[in-house]
Amino acid sequence: MGLFNVTRPTSFLLTGIPGLESSHSWLAGPLCVMYALALGGNTLILQAVRLESSLHAPMYYFLSMLSFSDVAMAMATLPTVLRTFCLDARTIAFDACLVQMFLIHSFSMMESGILLAMSFDRYIAICNPLRYATVLTNEIIAGMGLAVTARSFITLFPLPFLIKRLPICRSNVLSHSYCLHPDMMKLACADITVNSIYGLFVLVSTFGMDLLFIFLSYVLILHSVMAIASREERLKALNTCVSHILAVLAFYVPMIGVSTVHRFGKHAPRYVHVLMSNVYLFVPPVLNPLIYSAKTKEIRRAIFRMFSRIKL
Q1: Taking the model in full, what pTM does it have?
Q2: How many folded domains does the chain comprise?
Q3: Is residue 283 included in any domain, yes or no?
Q4: Which pLDDT tens digit goes with each residue over 205-220?
Q5: Residue 94 sits in which domain range?
Q6: Which H, E and C letters describe the chain, residue by residue?
């Protein structure tokens, strides 16, 4: 089971997909494609916003933050996932596991905060367009980005220490090909009430509140849009929100699915837990650049201009 102390393993063993161990080399191909799409697509958006002066606007600055968090999330999971599936190298040092756990949860929380900031952007753009330029200045946008980052760091800073204080002597085998807080605390042979309560507090006070405020912002947006007389103008206003709504669904639907399976699906097969967690981590970074490229013509034009410059 790995190298052990009485209270703490020196390393953990990561797991691919239970029951499909013989197919891991085949699964490595699709995983590499997903990483390439996530890293390539989000890097393209970051470059398009950086190079195109027409995209130097609040909506696209927030989109850049979203792309950055997606790239960071992909980079946080890539080393252990590819080692597990490609090389069958399943061992990860205890401290490295804590660092990866912190990074995964931090970037996930950052993404939630950025989606909330983007909903505020859409609310101001539709409900109070005359004040848009004065409310969302570069300084305010930078401040919102810093606040989202600081919230993630401060809120999740205790997690590694909460894990370190636990004696882990049941097993050192994790359920995934990366390190997550719920997965690690279940290996403890001590009372994990503090970890459970703090984890639930973080989930409700950040992700839960973000989702509530996103929902409220769209209630206000719909109320404002319904007051517009022209049907064409209503559709045009709502169309500017489609990309953001799809990004919110791509992030929160898998997350709610994972939380539901973890809380209430204790008797579900292990591969269900693993697949749901993988969907939660891989789907948003892959889908977000595709959604914004498909639904936002300004992004498409900027990307086409970038490629045409390269050809020239």
Answers
A1: 0.91
A2: 1
A3: yes
A4: 999 999 999 999 999 9
A5: 11-311
A6: CCCECCCCECEEECCCCCCCHHHHHHHHHHHHHHHHHHHHHHHHHHHHHHHCHHHCCHHHHHHHHHHHHHHHHHHHHHHHHHHHHHHCCCEEEHHHHHHHHHHHHHHHHHHHHHHHHHHHHHHHHHHCHHHHHHHCCHHHHHHHHHHHHHHHHHHHCHHHHHHHCCCECCCCECCCCCCCHHHHHCCECCCCHHHHHHHHHHHHHHHHHHHHHHHHHHHHHHHHHHCCCCHHHHHHHHHCCHHHHHHHHHHHHHHHHHHHHHHHCCCCCHHHHHHHHHHHHHHHHHHHHHHHHHHCHHHHHHHHHHHHHHHC
